[in-house]
Amino acid sequence: MPTKYEELIERVHELDDLNKANALLYWDREVYMPRGGVAERIAQMTTLSSLSHRMSTSDEMGELIEAAAAEIDGAPYDSNEASLIRLLQRNYADARKIPAEYVARSSAISGRTREAWVKARAENDFAHFRPWLEQVIELCQELADYYGYEDEKYDALLDKYELNMKTAEVRAIFDAVKAELVPLREAVDQSRVSLNDSIVHQPYDIDKQKAFARYIAEAVGYDFERGHLGTVVHPFAISFSRNDARITTRWYPDFLNPSLFGALHESGHAMYEQGTHPDLARTPLARGTSLGIHESQSRMMENIVGRSRGFWQAHFPKLQSYFPEALGNSTAEDFYRAINKTQPSFIRVEADELTYNFHIILRFELEQAMLNGDLPAAELPTSWNDKMRELIGITPPNDKEGCLQDVHWSRPGFGYFPTYALGNLYGAQFFETAVSQNPAILDELAQGKTTALLAWLRENIHQHGKKFTPGELVQRVTGRPLDHQAFMRYARAKFSDLYALN
Amino acid sequence: MPTKYEELIERVHELDDLNKANALLYWDREVYMPRGGVAERIAQMTTLSSLSHRMSTSDEMGELIEAAAAEIDGAPYDSNEASLIRLLQRNYADARKIPAEYVARSSAISGRTREAWVKARAENDFAHFRPWLEQVIELCQELADYYGYEDEKYDALLDKYELNMKTAEVRAIFDAVKAELVPLREAVDQSRVSLNDSIVHQPYDIDKQKAFARYIAEAVGYDFERGHLGTVVHPFAISFSRNDARITTRWYPDFLNPSLFGALHESGHAMYEQGTHPDLARTPLARGTSLGIHESQSRMMENIVGRSRGFWQAHFPKLQSYFPEALGNSTAEDFYRAINKTQPSFIRVEADELTYNFHIILRFELEQAMLNGDLPAAELPTSWNDKMRELIGITPPNDKEGCLQDVHWSRPGFGYFPTYALGNLYGAQFFETAVSQNPAILDELAQGKTTALLAWLRENIHQHGKKFTPGELVQRVTGRPLDHQAFMRYARAKFSDLYALN
User: Can you give the pTM of this predicted structure?
Assistant: First the structure.
């Protein structure tokens, strides 16, 4: 006679397998599926989603979770059992708050809104997108009301990406970032130093880019025995188990950065999932803590590691050997400076390490205003451009390079954007702690290696998967809540050196 | 208020989506999955299988099928509705006959038997495999008893691959093949002509083989907008919808045939599923009629089309342009003769078009003897070698090249083998009918084209999917039951010409 907890685990494994199969349907669609197959693929994904939703939100499931919870009552907070029950209870309660009617309606509207967005962006026609954005805002408001909140409406949505984090907390941190980062950005703008990035804008053979992406992903610790590198239009990482965590990237024939830093970024995500503890397998605990914590891992590999001087002093000769024509006459220092050029720009996904956060803070502020009814959809372009001037000092020439650039607002996903910048801040705070606990990490990095860093990340972050909230994890690992200081110390040191500030 | 039939269709779509997701888990495992992921992948596939099994065999499903059947009572036999209900009733009844305990036991034994087979084959050690084969025979016997049969035990198993076909029928056809094909094979052996196939055994660049495989698959009508070519160890075709039917092949650096004829063979399978009628989508009707009929399509493209003189007179210049070093000094006729060299051989998967059927007839006869208890596992090697001498005129030097060569007997799948040879016979009978109804098919083939042939196949075979039994289909299409005559006419004409007989 199995215990209720054992019964529950069996269900959880089944659901996890089903969700992973659905993830594979998605991955395949993006990477290898012939384009003819899209309609049937959407049907397949929809079926697996609703099967999974039905199974995970049934009354029976709710009762099983509670019966199992009673059985393991008293298990330590950080035990796998208690952590799993907490997560299942939260997910169950959340899922039960949303009417099936809303899910179907929201999914239908999102599909059509996405089409409208594609057209509006292509034609630089915000007026075409406006009525759809209005519906998305309403869907977000409705969703926030279903979930409920104590202080601010935005809390209800943010909570789905950064569990238990409050809007006020993020606002305070972002305000602190702004207060210090705007002057730093202005100092960089006014610096007599100007970095030359022409060497990354040259012809780069795509097959060689692919080979080098594999090399550099392995160099930071991504395990190809448990991974795969695919080609896509919009890169992402995805895992079907800790032993099958995949990355994707894209290739430009005359610009090296997207494949190189894309591979490092996605490797950071995938290494996180490769590092979850085996005992969490086939449960929803075998994932990253939150989107923000996940992004901390990708950003750390992309920027703190992948855009560091020491790392390229070690790996540049290899890169030169792949691309002797493009890089034969350059030095590691030339390359280091080229990949760290910072400058105001309109497009978030192309922004450099320093200005990227501004793009996020802007969206975070506009989302709140739209959600609270303070910013009607029609006024978005004006507000967008005002904030661009305030934060980055430039005005988009059109909405295509302004408020129409991202896909995110074609679905009711307010609350997602801040996790990108939070990732930068978490990443810097983790890295600073890691180095303080094991200074050998820096020595190794200067030799192009991440063994000690990865060991630290696995021990302190990866293995725990989704057992803790992001707030709990940051406190456990760094001894204090998230703040802006580690990131600012890192950014100030790096860019003061690069741009000869003082 | 939806009708019962509509309710049923919704369930059927859901089940089909789930099964297709499982098929993708399999495809991905074979083609792109990193090897570290195998344990979790097996768990995922097992979960989806049992979910699907549970849903399709529930009491509720049985009642729904019967309620829907009552609703559509009177629909024409060949309507989609009646055909679907027939198929669902059969599958439901079959599935309910097998105890869950048997399914689990059989799957566990098959897993371990496969391991034992791999080791036994590698070490040429039949004694190691013998006790496992005994268990497989018992599992087959048990399975036959669950399904039930009227005349012979083997009928129960054959029926699962060739619905409604009787063992006696296959035996009569195979005996007729033997009676005519053994003398033809002997005449070929004694012919003064000997064909030289050295040109296909030369270095062939693998990237160019890949490119040419795409070219030739497209040339016979495989649609890459709704397809994909992947690399595997054991080639297969698989579909996730008519708009996503994939092929796989393997590449040898110094032997052209496997990739070339593998691509044609799998294209034949995939074109079948690409040609199923759109109205059958997301139902189990959108598949090939039976394994034998499926094989008729692959064998037709591989052999009747792909090993024909006219086809290569048209495409050989292209092949030469891909491989000027290997083929620059050869003619289309040289190539035609090289790819049609026939000779006794030990290994089924390497056998030529003429002798292939003997390998199947041998297995068909031995399976029956084992199933009926007339042939103990221990005596298999001796019986195998006796039959090889009788049918092909040679004696395997060891069991590795004899009764240990195939994976099939490591699972309770007796009844599967005959479908390979049935495919050759069905294919010849279909092709002969097609040409008699539209002689332009031959003219086109001589120009390397299959447009008319493919149109005929779509109209007469592909679009119907699994609506008819193989017997019904053959009767509808060719006006008579399956026999050996069309194949023998085809083989006699082709090989008499090649080997200058009489």
Answer: 0.95
